[in-house]
Records
---
Amino acid sequence: SELSGVVEYRNVTFAYPGAESPVLSNISFTARPGQTIAIIGSTGAGKTSLLSLLPRLYDAAEGEVLLDGVPVNNLDHAEITKRVALVPQRPYLFSGTIEHNLRFGKTDATDQELWEALRVAQGESFVREKSKALESRISQGGTNVSGGQRQRLCIARALVTKPRVYLFDDSFSALDVATDARLRAALKDTTADATVIIVAQRVSTITEADQILVLDNGRIVDRGTHEELLETSPTYQEIVES
Ligand code: DGT
Ligand code: MG
Protein backbone atom coordinates (compact mmCIF):
# COMPACT_ATOMS: atom_id res chain seq x y z
CA SER A 1 0.00 0.00 0.00
CA GLU A 2 0.97 3.66 -0.18
CA LEU A 3 1.89 3.65 3.48
CA SER A 4 4.26 0.69 3.38
CA GLY A 5 7.94 1.01 4.14
CA VAL A 6 8.01 1.02 7.93
CA VAL A 7 11.34 -0.31 9.20
CA GLU A 8 11.76 -1.34 12.81
CA TYR A 9 14.82 -2.74 14.55
CA ARG A 10 13.82 -4.21 17.89
CA ASN A 11 16.60 -5.03 20.37
CA VAL A 12 18.86 -6.34 17.63
CA THR A 13 22.16 -7.95 18.56
CA PHE A 14 24.36 -9.37 15.81
CA ALA A 15 27.70 -11.17 15.56
CA TYR A 16 29.31 -12.24 12.28
CA PRO A 17 29.34 -16.01 11.77
CA GLY A 18 32.28 -17.48 13.69
CA ALA A 19 33.05 -14.22 15.52
CA GLU A 20 33.01 -14.22 19.30
CA SER A 21 31.74 -10.78 20.13
CA PRO A 22 28.77 -8.96 18.62
CA VAL A 23 29.31 -5.99 16.30
CA LEU A 24 25.82 -4.67 17.08
CA SER A 25 24.24 -4.65 20.52
CA ASN A 26 20.65 -3.97 21.42
CA ILE A 27 19.83 -1.76 18.43
CA SER A 28 16.31 -0.32 18.46
CA PHE A 29 14.84 2.34 16.19
CA THR A 30 11.92 2.90 13.84
CA ALA A 31 12.03 4.58 10.42
CA ARG A 32 8.74 5.56 8.80
CA PRO A 33 7.69 6.59 5.31
CA GLY A 34 8.50 10.27 4.78
CA GLN A 35 11.33 10.19 7.29
CA THR A 36 15.07 10.33 6.84
CA ILE A 37 17.05 8.53 9.51
CA ALA A 38 20.81 9.09 9.50
CA ILE A 39 23.46 6.86 11.04
CA ILE A 40 26.80 8.34 11.90
CA GLY A 41 29.78 6.97 13.78
CA SER A 42 33.47 6.26 13.44
CA THR A 43 34.91 3.63 11.15
CA GLY A 44 34.15 0.13 12.42
CA ALA A 45 31.22 1.36 14.54
CA GLY A 46 28.88 -1.08 12.79
CA LYS A 47 26.99 1.15 10.31
CA THR A 48 27.30 -1.16 7.29
CA SER A 49 26.55 -4.19 9.46
CA LEU A 50 23.39 -2.50 10.71
CA LEU A 51 22.10 -1.81 7.19
CA SER A 52 22.97 -5.32 5.99
CA LEU A 53 20.36 -6.92 8.26
CA LEU A 54 17.34 -5.39 6.51
CA PRO A 55 17.96 -6.96 3.06
CA ARG A 56 19.10 -10.10 4.93
CA LEU A 57 22.71 -10.13 3.80
CA TYR A 58 22.98 -11.49 7.34
CA ASP A 59 20.34 -12.47 9.88
CA ALA A 60 20.42 -11.16 13.44
CA ALA A 61 20.61 -13.85 16.08
CA GLU A 62 18.78 -11.83 18.71
CA GLY A 63 15.99 -9.34 18.41
CA GLU A 64 13.99 -8.63 15.27
CA VAL A 65 14.21 -6.56 12.13
CA LEU A 66 10.71 -5.84 10.87
CA LEU A 67 9.50 -4.55 7.52
CA ASP A 68 5.91 -3.32 7.67
CA GLY A 69 5.48 -5.26 10.90
CA VAL A 70 6.72 -8.57 9.50
CA PRO A 71 10.07 -10.00 10.67
CA VAL A 72 12.36 -9.99 7.61
CA ASN A 73 13.37 -13.53 8.53
CA ASN A 74 9.87 -14.51 7.38
CA LEU A 75 10.28 -12.75 4.01
CA ASP A 76 12.19 -14.01 1.00
CA HIS A 77 14.68 -11.89 -0.89
CA ALA A 78 12.30 -11.19 -3.77
CA GLU A 79 9.72 -9.75 -1.37
CA ILE A 80 12.33 -7.62 0.35
CA THR A 81 14.01 -6.29 -2.81
CA LYS A 82 10.62 -5.24 -4.17
CA ARG A 83 10.42 -2.78 -1.28
CA VAL A 84 14.01 -2.12 -0.21
CA ALA A 85 16.96 -0.82 -2.26
CA LEU A 86 20.46 -0.81 -0.77
CA VAL A 87 23.14 1.36 -2.35
CA PRO A 88 26.24 -0.35 -0.99
CA GLN A 89 29.31 1.38 0.38
CA ARG A 90 31.42 -0.10 -2.42
CA PRO A 91 29.12 0.38 -5.37
CA TYR A 92 29.55 -2.20 -8.09
CA LEU A 93 28.79 -2.13 -11.79
CA PHE A 94 28.41 -5.11 -14.06
CA SER A 95 30.32 -5.40 -17.30
CA GLY A 96 27.78 -4.43 -19.93
CA THR A 97 26.08 -1.20 -20.93
CA ILE A 98 24.97 1.64 -18.67
CA GLU A 99 21.41 0.75 -19.63
CA HIS A 100 21.90 -2.86 -18.51
CA ASN A 101 23.35 -1.63 -15.22
CA LEU A 102 20.45 0.73 -14.56
CA ARG A 103 17.79 -1.86 -15.44
CA PHE A 104 19.30 -4.49 -13.19
CA GLY A 105 16.57 -4.27 -10.54
CA LYS A 106 13.71 -3.52 -12.94
CA THR A 107 14.24 -5.01 -16.38
CA ASP A 108 11.09 -3.43 -17.85
CA ALA A 109 11.99 0.17 -16.94
CA THR A 110 11.54 2.58 -19.86
CA ASP A 111 14.35 4.79 -21.19
CA GLN A 112 12.44 7.74 -19.78
CA GLU A 113 12.55 6.18 -16.30
CA LEU A 114 16.29 5.63 -16.66
CA TRP A 115 16.90 9.26 -17.64
CA GLU A 116 14.71 10.49 -14.79
CA ALA A 117 16.72 8.39 -12.31
CA LEU A 118 19.95 9.74 -13.82
CA ARG A 119 18.66 13.30 -13.54
CA VAL A 120 17.98 12.87 -9.81
CA ALA A 121 21.28 11.05 -9.23
CA GLN A 122 23.20 13.88 -10.99
CA GLY A 123 24.37 11.41 -13.63
CA GLU A 124 22.48 12.76 -16.61
CA SER A 125 25.18 14.99 -18.08
CA PHE A 126 28.08 12.56 -17.96
CA VAL A 127 25.96 9.82 -19.56
CA ARG A 128 24.68 12.22 -22.27
CA GLU A 129 28.25 13.29 -23.00
CA LYS A 130 29.24 9.73 -23.89
CA SER A 131 28.88 9.07 -27.61
CA LYS A 132 26.67 6.04 -27.06
CA ALA A 133 24.83 7.48 -24.02
CA LEU A 134 22.82 4.67 -22.33
CA GLU A 135 24.40 2.12 -24.64
CA SER A 136 27.94 2.99 -23.55
CA ARG A 137 29.82 0.03 -22.21
CA ILE A 138 31.04 -0.25 -18.64
CA SER A 139 34.25 -2.23 -18.50
CA GLN A 140 34.58 -5.07 -16.05
CA GLY A 141 34.65 -3.71 -12.50
CA GLY A 142 33.51 -0.32 -13.78
CA THR A 143 37.06 0.92 -14.19
CA ASN A 144 36.17 3.27 -17.06
CA VAL A 145 33.98 5.44 -14.83
CA SER A 146 35.20 7.46 -11.86
CA GLY A 147 34.32 6.58 -8.28
CA GLY A 148 31.81 9.43 -8.09
CA GLN A 149 30.23 8.44 -11.41
CA ARG A 150 29.98 4.85 -10.21
CA GLN A 151 28.23 6.01 -7.02
CA ARG A 152 25.76 8.06 -9.05
CA LEU A 153 24.99 5.15 -11.40
CA CYS A 154 24.34 2.91 -8.39
CA ILE A 155 22.07 5.54 -6.83
CA ALA A 156 20.23 5.80 -10.17
CA ARG A 157 19.90 2.01 -10.29
CA ALA A 158 18.20 2.11 -6.87
CA LEU A 159 15.89 4.95 -7.96
CA VAL A 160 14.76 2.99 -11.02
CA THR A 161 13.22 0.31 -8.78
CA LYS A 162 11.07 2.93 -6.96
CA PRO A 163 11.45 1.20 -3.61
CA ARG A 164 9.56 2.04 -0.42
CA VAL A 165 12.83 2.01 1.57
CA TYR A 166 16.22 3.41 0.51
CA LEU A 167 19.42 2.43 2.29
CA PHE A 168 22.36 4.65 1.34
CA ASP A 169 25.65 3.39 2.76
CA ASP A 170 28.04 6.31 2.58
CA SER A 171 26.79 6.89 -0.95
CA PHE A 172 27.72 10.55 -1.18
CA SER A 173 31.33 10.45 0.03
CA ALA A 174 32.97 10.33 -3.41
CA LEU A 175 31.00 13.39 -4.54
CA ASP A 176 32.19 16.95 -4.19
CA VAL A 177 30.23 19.06 -1.71
CA ALA A 178 28.25 20.88 -4.44
CA THR A 179 27.20 17.67 -6.24
CA ASP A 180 26.34 16.08 -2.89
CA ALA A 181 24.06 19.04 -2.08
CA ARG A 182 22.37 19.01 -5.52
CA LEU A 183 21.85 15.27 -5.38
CA ARG A 184 20.30 15.38 -1.92
CA ALA A 185 17.98 18.24 -2.92
CA ALA A 186 16.76 16.23 -5.94
CA LEU A 187 16.47 13.07 -3.84
CA LYS A 188 14.39 14.87 -1.24
CA ASP A 189 11.60 15.42 -3.79
CA THR A 190 11.79 11.97 -5.35
CA THR A 191 11.96 10.08 -2.05
CA ALA A 192 9.51 12.32 -0.14
CA ASP A 193 7.05 9.47 0.57
CA ALA A 194 9.68 6.79 1.05
CA THR A 195 11.67 5.72 4.10
CA VAL A 196 15.29 6.81 3.81
CA ILE A 197 18.15 5.54 5.94
CA ILE A 198 21.47 7.24 5.25
CA VAL A 199 24.89 6.30 6.57
CA ALA A 200 27.15 9.32 6.26
CA GLN A 201 30.67 10.45 6.99
CA ARG A 202 30.06 14.15 6.45
CA VAL A 203 27.79 15.82 8.98
CA SER A 204 26.68 18.29 6.26
CA THR A 205 24.98 15.37 4.49
CA ILE A 206 22.64 14.66 7.40
CA THR A 207 21.91 17.92 9.22
CA GLU A 208 18.32 17.86 7.94
CA ALA A 209 17.60 14.25 8.96
CA ASP A 210 14.53 13.71 11.12
CA GLN A 211 16.62 11.65 13.49
CA ILE A 212 20.32 10.92 13.71
CA LEU A 213 21.52 7.74 15.42
CA VAL A 214 25.04 8.03 16.81
CA LEU A 215 26.64 4.60 16.64
CA ASP A 216 29.70 3.79 18.72
CA ASN A 217 31.16 0.33 19.06
CA GLY A 218 27.95 -1.34 17.91
CA ARG A 219 25.62 0.61 20.18
CA ILE A 220 23.37 3.58 19.64
CA VAL A 221 24.88 5.94 22.20
CA ASP A 222 22.81 9.01 21.33
CA ARG A 223 19.91 9.96 19.08
CA GLY A 224 18.18 13.16 18.09
CA THR A 225 18.18 15.92 15.51
CA HIS A 226 21.38 17.72 14.54
CA GLU A 227 20.52 20.64 16.83
CA GLU A 228 19.62 18.36 19.75
CA LEU A 229 22.81 16.31 19.40
CA LEU A 230 24.98 19.42 19.24
CA GLU A 231 23.63 20.23 22.71
CA THR A 232 23.57 16.77 24.24
CA SER A 233 26.04 14.40 22.61
CA PRO A 234 29.79 14.64 23.22
CA THR A 235 30.31 11.81 20.70
CA TYR A 236 28.39 13.78 18.05
CA GLN A 237 30.28 16.96 18.89
CA GLU A 238 33.54 15.08 18.35
CA ILE A 239 32.35 13.90 14.92
CA VAL A 240 31.27 17.44 13.98
CA GLU A 241 34.65 18.83 14.98
CA SER A 242 36.70 16.11 13.27
P1 DGT B 1 33.13 2.20 8.01
O1 DGT B 1 32.41 1.79 6.78
O2 DGT B 1 34.60 2.01 7.89
O3 DGT B 1 32.80 3.61 8.44
O4 DGT B 1 32.70 1.23 9.23
P2 DGT B 1 31.24 0.68 9.62
O5 DGT B 1 30.69 1.53 10.71
O6 DGT B 1 30.42 0.50 8.41
O7 DGT B 1 31.58 -0.74 10.27
P3 DGT B 1 31.20 -2.22 9.75
O8 DGT B 1 29.78 -2.49 10.04
O9 DGT B 1 31.70 -2.44 8.38
O10 DGT B 1 32.10 -3.09 10.71
C1 DGT B 1 31.81 -3.24 12.10
C2 DGT B 1 32.70 -4.31 12.66
O11 DGT B 1 32.40 -5.56 12.06
C3 DGT B 1 34.19 -4.08 12.45
O12 DGT B 1 34.86 -4.49 13.63
C4 DGT B 1 34.55 -4.99 11.31
C5 DGT B 1 33.56 -6.12 11.46
N1 DGT B 1 33.16 -6.71 10.18
C6 DGT B 1 32.66 -6.05 9.11
N2 DGT B 1 32.36 -6.90 8.12
C7 DGT B 1 32.68 -8.14 8.57
C8 DGT B 1 32.58 -9.45 8.02
O13 DGT B 1 32.12 -9.65 6.88
N3 DGT B 1 33.01 -10.48 8.81
C9 DGT B 1 33.49 -10.29 10.07
N4 DGT B 1 33.88 -11.35 10.79
N5 DGT B 1 33.60 -9.08 10.62
C10 DGT B 1 33.19 -8.02 9.89
MG1 MG C 1 30.68 0.86 6.45
---
Amino acid sequence: TDRGTPDPLPPAPPAGAAGPRRLLLVVAVALVDADGRVLLAQRPPGKTLAGLWEFPGGKIEPGERPEETLIRELAEELGIAVKEACLAPLTFASHAYESFHLLMPLYVCRRWEGAVQSREGQALRWVRPRDLAGFPMPPADRPLLPALVDLLGP
Ligand code: 9L3
Ligand code: MG
Protein backbone atom coordinates (compact mmCIF):
# COMPACT_ATOMS: atom_id res chain seq x y z
CA THR A 1 0.00 0.00 0.00
CA ASP A 2 1.24 3.52 -0.68
CA ARG A 3 1.84 4.67 2.82
CA GLY A 4 3.69 7.81 1.75
CA THR A 5 0.64 9.45 0.22
CA PRO A 6 -1.04 11.83 2.65
CA ASP A 7 -4.82 11.64 3.06
CA PRO A 8 -6.56 14.26 0.95
CA LEU A 9 -8.29 17.04 2.89
CA PRO A 10 -12.03 16.51 3.24
CA PRO A 11 -14.06 18.72 0.93
CA ALA A 12 -15.34 21.92 2.56
CA PRO A 13 -19.04 21.69 3.44
CA PRO A 14 -21.32 24.00 1.46
CA ALA A 15 -22.12 27.27 3.25
CA GLY A 16 -24.87 26.83 5.81
CA ALA A 17 -24.64 23.02 5.84
CA ALA A 18 -24.38 21.08 9.08
CA GLY A 19 -20.82 20.00 9.78
CA PRO A 20 -17.61 21.53 10.98
CA ARG A 21 -18.01 25.19 11.80
CA ARG A 22 -15.36 27.84 11.66
CA LEU A 23 -14.15 29.00 15.03
CA LEU A 24 -14.44 32.73 15.60
CA LEU A 25 -12.39 34.07 18.51
CA VAL A 26 -13.68 37.29 20.02
CA VAL A 27 -12.96 38.94 23.37
CA ALA A 28 -15.20 41.24 25.40
CA VAL A 29 -14.92 43.26 28.59
CA ALA A 30 -17.20 44.45 31.36
CA LEU A 31 -15.96 47.94 32.22
CA VAL A 32 -17.14 48.68 35.76
CA ASP A 33 -17.34 52.27 37.02
CA ALA A 34 -16.99 53.58 40.59
CA ASP A 35 -20.74 53.06 41.18
CA GLY A 36 -20.57 49.41 40.11
CA ARG A 37 -22.31 50.03 36.80
CA VAL A 38 -21.29 48.20 33.62
CA LEU A 39 -20.81 49.67 30.15
CA LEU A 40 -22.96 48.38 27.28
CA ALA A 41 -22.40 49.48 23.68
CA GLN A 42 -25.06 49.32 20.99
CA ARG A 43 -24.02 47.67 17.73
CA PRO A 44 -24.36 50.30 14.99
CA PRO A 45 -26.61 50.04 11.93
CA GLY A 46 -25.03 48.13 9.06
CA LYS A 47 -23.06 45.76 11.30
CA THR A 48 -24.24 42.24 12.08
CA LEU A 49 -26.60 42.14 15.09
CA ALA A 50 -27.26 45.89 14.65
CA GLY A 51 -29.15 47.53 17.50
CA LEU A 52 -28.25 44.88 20.09
CA TRP A 53 -26.39 45.88 23.28
CA GLU A 54 -23.07 44.13 23.89
CA PHE A 55 -20.02 44.15 26.08
CA PRO A 56 -17.36 46.09 24.14
CA GLY A 57 -14.69 44.09 22.37
CA GLY A 58 -13.93 42.52 19.03
CA LYS A 59 -12.19 39.85 17.01
CA ILE A 60 -8.87 38.47 18.17
CA GLU A 61 -6.46 39.01 15.27
CA PRO A 62 -4.06 36.16 14.45
CA GLY A 63 -1.16 36.15 16.92
CA GLU A 64 -2.83 38.45 19.43
CA ARG A 65 -3.44 37.51 23.01
CA PRO A 66 -6.95 38.47 24.18
CA GLU A 67 -5.55 41.16 26.48
CA GLU A 68 -3.78 42.79 23.53
CA THR A 69 -6.99 42.71 21.51
CA LEU A 70 -8.89 44.45 24.30
CA ILE A 71 -6.26 47.14 24.77
CA ARG A 72 -6.39 47.84 21.01
CA GLU A 73 -10.21 47.71 20.75
CA LEU A 74 -10.80 49.87 23.83
CA ALA A 75 -8.49 52.56 22.48
CA GLU A 76 -10.17 52.45 19.04
CA GLU A 77 -13.81 52.20 20.10
CA LEU A 78 -13.89 54.08 23.42
CA GLY A 79 -10.73 56.22 23.50
CA ILE A 80 -9.47 54.83 26.81
CA ALA A 81 -6.08 53.38 27.78
CA VAL A 82 -6.15 50.15 29.75
CA LYS A 83 -3.21 48.41 31.38
CA GLU A 84 -2.97 44.67 30.99
CA ALA A 85 -2.76 44.20 34.77
CA CYS A 86 -6.22 45.79 35.04
CA LEU A 87 -7.85 43.12 32.86
CA ALA A 88 -9.10 40.14 34.89
CA PRO A 89 -10.61 37.14 33.09
CA LEU A 90 -14.03 36.14 34.45
CA THR A 91 -15.67 33.53 32.22
CA PHE A 92 -16.28 32.45 28.62
CA ALA A 93 -19.18 32.75 26.23
CA SER A 94 -19.60 29.98 23.68
CA HIS A 95 -22.29 30.17 21.05
CA ALA A 96 -22.85 27.99 17.98
CA TYR A 97 -24.16 30.09 15.14
CA GLU A 98 -25.29 28.39 11.92
CA SER A 99 -21.96 28.81 10.17
CA PHE A 100 -19.44 29.48 12.92
CA HIS A 101 -18.73 28.85 16.56
CA LEU A 102 -18.05 31.97 18.61
CA LEU A 103 -15.76 31.54 21.61
CA MET A 104 -15.46 34.72 23.67
CA PRO A 105 -13.69 35.25 26.99
CA LEU A 106 -15.16 38.00 29.16
CA TYR A 107 -12.76 40.17 31.18
CA VAL A 108 -13.59 42.63 33.94
CA CYS A 109 -11.86 46.02 34.11
CA ARG A 110 -12.33 48.63 36.85
CA ARG A 111 -9.41 50.97 36.04
CA TRP A 112 -8.52 52.83 32.87
CA GLU A 113 -7.14 56.17 31.78
CA GLY A 114 -9.16 58.75 29.89
CA ALA A 115 -12.89 59.36 29.64
CA VAL A 116 -15.07 56.78 27.90
CA GLN A 117 -16.30 58.26 24.61
CA SER A 118 -18.11 56.89 21.59
CA ARG A 119 -15.43 56.85 18.88
CA GLU A 120 -17.43 54.87 16.30
CA GLY A 121 -20.88 56.45 16.68
CA GLN A 122 -22.13 53.65 18.93
CA ALA A 123 -24.61 54.48 21.72
CA LEU A 124 -23.20 53.78 25.19
CA ARG A 125 -24.98 53.15 28.51
CA TRP A 126 -23.78 52.60 32.06
CA VAL A 127 -26.09 49.94 33.49
CA ARG A 128 -26.60 48.54 36.99
CA PRO A 129 -25.94 44.78 36.99
CA ARG A 130 -29.59 43.99 37.87
CA ASP A 131 -30.76 46.00 34.83
CA LEU A 132 -28.49 44.32 32.25
CA ALA A 133 -31.01 41.56 31.51
CA GLY A 134 -33.51 44.14 30.21
CA PHE A 135 -31.35 45.02 27.20
CA PRO A 136 -31.63 43.10 23.92
CA MET A 137 -28.23 41.41 23.51
CA PRO A 138 -26.40 39.16 21.04
CA PRO A 139 -27.00 35.51 21.98
CA ALA A 140 -23.38 35.09 23.08
CA ASP A 141 -23.54 37.92 25.64
CA ARG A 142 -26.72 37.06 27.55
CA PRO A 143 -25.40 33.84 29.23
CA LEU A 144 -22.57 35.94 30.71
CA LEU A 145 -24.92 37.90 32.96
CA PRO A 146 -25.21 35.50 35.93
CA ALA A 147 -21.43 35.35 36.39
CA LEU A 148 -21.24 39.12 36.27
CA VAL A 149 -24.06 39.62 38.77
CA ASP A 150 -22.44 37.02 41.08
CA LEU A 151 -19.21 39.03 40.95
CA LEU A 152 -20.60 42.56 41.22
CA GLY A 153 -23.83 42.03 43.14
CA PRO A 154 -27.16 43.36 41.80
N1 9L3 B 1 -19.86 39.66 19.35
C1 9L3 B 1 -20.75 39.34 20.31
N2 9L3 B 1 -20.71 39.92 21.51
C2 9L3 B 1 -19.76 40.85 21.80
C3 9L3 B 1 -18.79 41.20 20.81
C4 9L3 B 1 -17.72 42.23 21.08
C5 9L3 B 1 -18.87 40.57 19.57
N3 9L3 B 1 -19.74 41.39 23.03
C6 9L3 B 1 -19.95 38.99 18.04
C7 9L3 B 1 -20.61 39.82 16.99
C8 9L3 B 1 -19.96 39.34 15.74
C9 9L3 B 1 -18.57 38.90 16.17
O1 9L3 B 1 -18.64 38.71 17.59
O2 9L3 B 1 -20.67 38.19 15.27
C10 9L3 B 1 -17.45 39.86 15.83
O3 9L3 B 1 -17.67 41.09 16.44
P1 9L3 B 1 -17.41 42.47 15.64
O4 9L3 B 1 -16.00 42.40 15.16
O5 9L3 B 1 -18.44 42.50 14.53
O6 9L3 B 1 -17.65 43.55 16.68
MG1 MG C 1 -16.21 45.51 18.24
